Structures are given as C-alpha cells and as structure tokens.
Amino acid sequence: MTRRNPAWLPAEDWTLLTEMPVIARHLVEKLRSAEQEILFENYIFQAGNWPEEVFDILCAKARDGVLVHLRLDAVGSRGFPERWIQKLRAAGGTFEWYHRLGWRGWEKSLRRSHRRIVLIDQQWLAVGGFALADAWLRGDPGQLPYRDVLFACRGPIVPLVRRLFLKNRPLSHKELRAAPSEAPDRHADAIVRLLAGSPPDRFTIRRRYLAAFRSARESLWIATPYFNPDPIVLSALYGAVRRGVDVRVLLAGRVTDHPLLRLGIQAYYQKLLRHRVRVYEYQESFLHAKYILVDGQWGAVGSANLDFLSLWFNRELNLEVKGLLPLASLRTLFLREFARSREISAEHWQRRSWWRRPLEWLLAQVDRRIQARALGSRRY
Predict the structure, then answer these.
(1) Global pTM value
(2) Rounded distance, CA 71 to CA 174, Å?
(3) Do 44 and 133 share a structural domain?
(4) How far apart are CA 273 and CA 325, in angstroms?
C-alpha cells in the first residue's frame, strides 16, 4: 500500500532559536501569554530553578481557568517531584506519565515518548530537542549552556500537532473545541510538514530520512548528539558519499552527558571515516540539538536522534522545513557549529590511544547485539 505524506503547510510567524537562554525566555513569555489552553509534553522535566519557574506558570494558568495538560516520560522525567503532580492537579491542571516502568517486557520498556511539544491556545507551536532542566541553561562547570534548538510557528500545522497530542489519550474534561482555522498565508517564506514517529505502527521519520539521504546530490549535514543508526541508514550515508555528496555528521564532543555512550558512538568513527563521511565533534559545550540539512533545499528539526531508539522505538516529533529563509538559517547554524568543532581526520583517529581500540570493539559488539535483539526480525 502506498503511503501518502502529509501536505506541506505555510509556517507563519516562524522562528528558529539556537541559544538556550533565549529559548528559555521565549518559552516563559509564551506560556505567560496563554489564555485558553496549554498542552505540554517533554522527555526531561527535572527539579530545578528554571523548571520550577515553568511549573509555577503552569499552575498559575490552571488556577486562572486555562486548560493545562502536562505529559512527561516516566524514565526521562524520573527527577520530576511527586509533590509537583499533586500541586498541578490541585490547581486544576491534568498530569500524565507516559509508560511508567513495570513488568511490560523488553520491547515495551524501550518505547519512550521523546517528543518535545508546546501548544498554546491552539495557535502557537514549538518543537525541538530542549528539556526542562537547569543543566541546559547552566552547562557543565566551565562550559557554556547546552546547544539545542527550538522551532516555533503559527499556522495550519498547529491543529495537526494538537490532534497528534490528543490522539491516544484525549482530555477527559474541559476540552476546548478546535479553533476555527484561518486561511493560510500562501506567501509565507517557510513551509513545514509534520514528521512524526509513532512506533510500533508508524516509522515515518526513518522512512523520510532514508528518502532524503538517498535523494541528496550535493550536501547532507546531520547534527545529532547520539549516533548509532541501523545498517540500512548507514548504507544510505555511504551511498551518498559515493555519489559525490558532502556528508558531514556533527556530534557531541568531550562535553557529554554520557561518557561511556560517547565511546560507543566513537566506535562508528573508523567505518565512517573509511567511507569518507566527515565527522565533527562540538567542543564548547554539550551538543544536544537534532537537525538535518540536505542540498540546502530540505531541512528537519525536532526531537529525533540518528539512533535506532529514535528511529525504531521512541515517539518522536520533527518538522520538515522548506523555504529560503529557514534553510539559510539552518545552513548558517551548521557553518557556525562546524567552526566551533574539531573535525576528526582519518590520520588523527589512527593515532588514538591504544586502549581505545579494544574498548571500541567491545562496545561495537554490545551495540550490535542490543540492536539485533531489539529489532529482531523486523524488515529494514
């Protein structure tokens, strides 16, 4: 059966933010402006100064009669205080855990909601990789705030994302009627398309990524903090290089939240470099942003990493982006981050410490076994 892609829609009043302090201020400002409804979903929401500021706004809005619904992943947000749940409910808001851990089996435990969604008054949408934790604003000692992105807009994409938010667990009370849609601005300088991954039924993000990688003719630039895609996705990257495409992967460098996981990611470097994929490690802080640019003509921004969990198991939400100005912004962002990164050359990687080689080999075997068990007999 032929799959139909969703329609491209104009993004009105769009913005692409790349500095976490600016992202935080923008979110706070928008939340304070809410008059009817706030739908909020995130993978990470932990106790801290900035998260508490956001949480207090949600409670205040709920007390004022605004419909507030907060959905958090039970694993990613395990640092969310239980007392906050009761406080939000007492204020009139609703709270929902996604997949609390239990005796649900290996595969179901892997399925997390990794999406970042903020919907306000059925009119404004924000997606990205940002999280509600002070580390994103503070950074590690001696480092700058985390590197992340937020793409926000108005327009006809908003009710589609709202429908996605409410799809599996519609609100049981005080739900508002859908706002009447206005005629879209056909002269908008940005157009977007919903790119949602909802395993185990839909693997839309992986399918669209493969189509974009296989269609690249000039450049294919990828920013992701976590990298361990399945073999077919890797083959698509290698195939692009053979066609003469400038393939670059921008990864987290020495500043990372998972040092052992970084070693596992570095186990891919030997093959990537042998296939002439250019590898960059960001140096100034932890790179947590996820975005892609193909031929300067197509972009994607959102929550999905280029790893097998995002592509096969997690609920993710990206937006595909086209348009001269937003794509120029993505290109400028990539060039700036490449300049702040260290490119890993094949010669440099050959000179790495002797002890890293057996450790990389071991981690590669572990990664291969985990993927084989997790993916099982799935057809790539």
Answers:
(1) 0.92
(2) 17
(3) yes
(4) 32
